[in-house]
């Protein structure tokens, strides 16, 4: 309804502008009606296009933005489930070293999720972390918990447990590197902003001195 009202107001405004231009052109051209009407028509479509662009949001762009928001929200919902599984797994392991590893994985994953929830646009920077590292962490953690819960351990199970522990440790390091990379983007952006501020201050100082 708001869009309809805006369109109507823009149409009325453009018509009024074109009428004024028509009258000005008519008197200026010595009452040449055809030329004045043509100028008025061009003015109408130009003003309508400019006003529409300024006051009516791009519906296609809004649709894309809304789709992206829904996609990110859905991804965060799935990510939270995996983080919850990792969180529960922390208290089902017997090794203090494995507990620390899973705990670090949980904390880093939780940090990234909160970061994206605060600033959804950062999902692109963290998509590899979410789709690769978090998925792998949930799978390996679940596998490890199932293995250590076995009442009997033969050589194969023991070997699988060691592989899972090594996998978790490697994943922890990979997640740390990925998180540092994400945070470094913030530092780079901050440096650029600080440089721009300093340059602006220098320009202001030089202008005042003149």
TrEMBL record:
Designated name of the protein: 5-bromo-4-chloroindolyl phosphate hydrolysis protein
Origin species: Sutcliffiella cohnii
Residues passing through the membrane, by range: 7-27, 33-51
Entry keyword set: Membrane, Transmembrane, Transmembrane helix
Domain of life: Bacteria
């Amino acid at each position: 309804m708001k869009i309809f009202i805006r369109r109507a107001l823009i149409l009325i405004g453009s018509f009024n502008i074109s009428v004024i231009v028509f009258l000005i052109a008519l008197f200026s051209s010595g009452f040449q009606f055809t030329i004045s009407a043509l100028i008025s028509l061009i003015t109408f479509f130009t003003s309508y296009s400019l006003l529409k662009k300024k006051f009516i949001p791009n519906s296609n762009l809004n649709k894309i933005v809304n789709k992206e928001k829904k996609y990110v929200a859905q991804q965060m919902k799935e990510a939270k489930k995996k983080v919850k599984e990792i969180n529960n797994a922390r208290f089902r392991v017997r090794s203090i070293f494995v507990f620390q590893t899973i705990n670090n994985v949980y904390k880093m994953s939780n940090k990234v999720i909160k970061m994206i929830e605060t600033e959804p646009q950062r999902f692109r920077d963290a998509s590899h972390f979410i789709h690769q590292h978090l998925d792998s962490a949930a799978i390996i953690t679940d596998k490890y918990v199932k293995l250590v819960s076995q009442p009997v351990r033969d050589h194969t199970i023991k070997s699988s447990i060691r592989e899972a522990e090594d996998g978790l440790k490697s994943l922890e390091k990979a997640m740390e590197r990925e998180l540092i990379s994400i945070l470094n983007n913030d530092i780079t952006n901050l440096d650029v902003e600080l440089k721009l501020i300093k340059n602006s201050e220098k320009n202001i100082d030089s202008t005042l001195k003149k």
